[in-house]
Structure formats: C-alpha cells, structure tokens
Amino acid sequence: MVVIIDYNIGNLSSVTSALKRVGIEAVITRDKELIRQARAIVLPGVGAFPVAMNNLKKYDLIGVLNECKNAGIPILGICLGMQILFEKGYEVEETDGLGFLNGEVKFMDIDEKIPHMGWNQLHFNQIHPILKNIHENDDVYFVHSFMAECPNEQLVAYSDYGDTKVTAIAVKDNIIGCQFHPEKSGAVGIQILKAFKEMIEC
Q1: Which of 60, 106, 175, 199 could be joined to 100 by an S-S link, Cβ 3.0–4.6 Å?
Q2: What is d(CA 196, CA 198) in angstroms, rounded to the nearest whole number?
Q3: What digits encode the pLDDT tens for the residues 54-110?
Q4: What pLDDT, on a 0 to 100 scale, did the predictor assign at position 202?
Q5: Is residue 115 reached through a cis peptide bond, with omega within 30 degrees of 0 on the bond before it?
Q6: Total-model pTM
C-alpha cells in the first residue's frame, strides 16, 4: 500500500491520478495506523511552509512520519511537500521543517520573474534510480517562489532559472524530494513516478 498524506495542503486528486497511471494504487489518509502499514509515502503540497507544518502538527502526523523515515520507508515529497522535508523554511516566518533532508528553504531573491512557473530542463548532478527512465535535459513543470539549498551530496538534479541553480531533486537515504510537479510534467513526470514505483517494489 502506498499512502498519500492528507494534511489539507494541495490537490491530492492529481497526484492520485498520476500514481494510478503508473500502476500505483494509493490511499489518501491521515490515519496513523494506515500510514505505518505503507510500503511508501507521498507527501504532496501547495501553499505556505508554516501552514503545512502547522497542519502536520494539528493532525499529529510528525511522529508517525519520523517513525516511517527511521524504518526506511521511502518518502516522496512534491513541491511544498519537498520543502518541508528540509530543516527550516523562511516563508512568512522562520519555521522548523521535518529535517529529513539537510538544508533550508529560502525566497528566490533573483532577477527572474517570481514565481518560477513553467517548464525547465533537468540537469543531473549524480546518478540515482529516480532518474533511470529519463534523460538529461528533459523538461519538467515548476510552480514555486521558494527554493531549497542543500548539500551537494544530496543534490540529484537541478534546473537553471536565469543564473540561479534551482534544487529540483534532493535525496537522502529513503527520502526523495521533487521541487517540480511530476504529476503535471507529462511523459517525463510519469517516467519519474514509474522509477519511484520500481524503487519501492525492488
């Protein structure tokens, strides 16, 4: 069973539909016992970092997510769901994240148009199974105004937005974060989700 965490953040139906297209039947839930039974977890999200963290606290989900992380269960964070995997965010106010990935999430204080919205190429920083079905320079779809700064050893792929190197995929052990939206990234996004399926089935 794959669980999509329901914490009142973002459009869960589009993520569910995309997972179904690659043969993953996912359950949308905030039930802690179901989450503990998951073979993989998806943490979606659209909105503000502090709201997301406050909702996880409100629904008492931080403890069970830590349990699953420590048990080695794969966790995929998408967009805001990726950002809250990091140690700290600075949207609206300084807020502690889950700390599953190292680094911080800061406003994209750059010369380009913000939010960063549209299709950008993925550049590979290192080889990882999540990339196995796609090619260097494939395009994926972004919508965000904040970006993660992470250690190079956790940076799997990035995109160039003007002169800025945007963290696109970050990985640490069983934790995977995608700043872009695989579910909105057409055939490339589907191939990334297919690779995620292959990772959790092996």
Answers
A1: 175
A2: 5
A3: 999 999 999 999 999 999 999 999 999 999 999 999 999 999 999 999 999 999 988
A4: 63
A5: yes
A6: 0.96
CB atoms within 10 A of CB 85: 28
For residue 132, give the amino acid letter.
K
Query: Residue 195's Cα: distance from chain center in Å?
Result: 14
Which homologous superfamily does the CATH classification assign to the domain defined by 2-201?
Answer: Class I glutamine amidotransferase (GATase) domain (3.40.50.880)
With contact defined as beta carbons under 8 Å apart, do 64 and 37 qualify? no
Q: Is 110 left (phi over 0), alpha (psi -120 to 50) or beta?
A: beta
Q: CB-hemisphere CA count at 13 Å for 76?
A: 26
| Residue range 151-156: mean pLDDT, rounded | 98
| Selection from 61, 73, 84, 80 nearest residue 5 by Cα | 61
Q: Average pLDDT, stretch 27-53?
A: 95
Burial class (CB in 10 A: 0-12, 13-18, 19+), 183: buried
Active site residues: 79, 181, 183
Fill in the amino acid letter for 114: I
Q: Which of 130, 131, 124, 189 is nearest to 158 (CA)?
A: 124
Mapping DSSP to helix (H, G, I), strand (E, B) and coil, where does residue 160 land? strand
Q: Where are the domains of the chain?
A: 2-201
